[in-house]
Structures are given as structure tokens and as C-alpha cells.
Amino acid sequence: MRAPAFLALDLVLVVVFAAIGRRSHAEEGALLAVLGTAWPFLVGALVGWGVAIAARLSPTTLRGGLPIWLCTVAVGMLLRAVTGAGTAFSFVLVATTALALFLLLPRLVAQRSGRRADA
Description:
The chain is mainly alpha-helical. Helix content is 82%, strand content 0%. It has one domain (3-118). InterPro entries: DUF3054 (IPR021414).
């Protein structure tokens, strides 16, 4: 996959993360409500992409995905705190874990499948 496809996938998966979270708390699932929950993490993901590119890391690799994941969580939580949204410790743990799976697993799969194709 190329970088634009990975960027789109990352943003979609962040929205999916927000939708799953809203659903698990029996909150409305309307698109605007989901985007209202997702926006801090979407901003964080874009910051992470900027950090990865500035550090000359390929954002499509597992190594390049690390700052994307960390910024998604850190910036997302910071923006939620600043806007008065919840940042309970349990939410931080769940978000950190879920976003690691959503943002790092596709890169791991792509790297592994790329190695197999080369072999």
C-alpha cells in the first residue's frame, strides 16, 4: 500500500474506533456524533503523520507507525482534556490499546506480506 492509502486507512480506523466506543456506551451513532468523538484523534493522527515524515520515517512501516499511534493517543487525549471531554484512566488504556491494534497491525501485516512477496 502507498502512503495516501495508509493515511486514508488510518483516518477511517480512527473513526471506526470512535464509532465502536460510542456504540459500547449506547450513545447515538449518527455520523456527526461519531465525528465529534473522533476529531481529537483525527488531529492526533495527522500530527503523527507529520512527525513521522519530519523524522524521515516511512509512515507505512511499523517503525513509522509508532509516532503516528503515539501522537494519535497523546494529542487526542490532550484535545479531549482541553475541551472538557473525558480522559478517565480506563479510557486512556482502552484507547491506547485499541488504537495500537488499529494503527500498527495493518502496517505489520503489510510488512509481513511484502517480505513474503520478495521471497
